[in-house]
Design a protein that fits this description.
InterPro entries: PHP_domain, Pol/histidinol_Pase-like. The protein is of the alpha/beta class. The protein has a single domain, classed as Alpha-Beta Barrel (TIM Barrel), CATH 3.20.20. 31% of the residues lie in helices and 25% in strands. The longest helix is centred in the first third of the chain and has 22 residues.
Length: 228
């Protein structure tokens, strides 16, 4: 039985304006519902971020990193692994990014001037892993649905905050282009009705191990109802 569960998509109040759950609360929530680890994927500086625009790049990255840092420290206390990632955005098109670190962000102060295609190419050049989050999400502020099947590694085929219709279209997208599949809770709140993640037979060592395990097909995706 695969008993080590991991969340791939979650937001903290420290990094994401749209979140009402702090890094400490988030970690304890996932500890309570039996997860072994969680990826912090706060909205990057071109998304719904808490980080002010009128600061030097280094200061902005340090502030952005706070959500992960606080979650990581809490994870050490309570016994849950916390991995670093982010959600890069362009007008409602969101790309989850894993496998790179704060030093990489500090080295690339031009990130916000890149097109999505340029961003994906740069991430891949340095060994990062890209997941198209909720690709068929509909909202008033999203002017069009953009798909990049040759530029991402995987598709989020289930997002707990999206409709069945949107999630089904995401699954079709992944199937049609034979892309890897992931699921996520996209947690923003202190209480959730559903969680979604990936589970393994063994404990994941770090984010690189997570990526390689996903590529090797070792994990099983799951969606669970949460009893409050």
């Amino acid at each position: 039985m695969k008993s080590f569960k991991y969340e791939m998509h979650a937001h903290t109040t420290e990094g994401s304006k749209c979140s009402n759950i702090s890094a400490v609360e988030l970690v304890n929530l996932y500890k309570k519902i039996g997860y072994s680890g969680i990826c912090i994927s706060d909205h990057f500086l071109n998304g719904n971020t808490t980080v002010p625009e009128n600061l030097p790049w280094e200061e902005r990255i340090e502030l952005f990193y706070n959500g992960y840092k606080r979650a990581y420290n809490e994870g050490k206390k309570v016994g849950i692994d916390v991995f670093f990632g982010w959600e890069y955005s362009y007008r409602g098109t969101d790309i989850l990014t894993y496998g790179l670190d704060k030093k990489w962000l500090l080295r690339h102060p031009n990130l916000l001037s890149l097109s999505l295609v340029e961003y994906c190419d740069l991430v891949h050049e340095d060994g990062g892993f890209l997941v198209h989050a909720h690709p068929f999400r509909e909202a008033e502020y999203i002017d069009m649905i953009r798909l990049f099947p040759r530029k991402v590694d995987a598709v989020e085929i289930f997002n707990a905050g999206r409709t069945d219709f949107e999630n089904k279209r995401a699954l079709e997208y992944a199937d049609n282009y034979k892309l890897l599949k992931l699921v996520g809770s996209d947690t923003h709140k202190k209480q959730i009705n559903k969680s979604a993640g990936i589970q393994f037979e063994r404990k994941i060592k770090d984010i690189d191990d997570m990526i390689e395990s996903i590529k090797d097909g070792q994990g099983d995706l799951f969606v669970s109802s949460i009893l409050r």
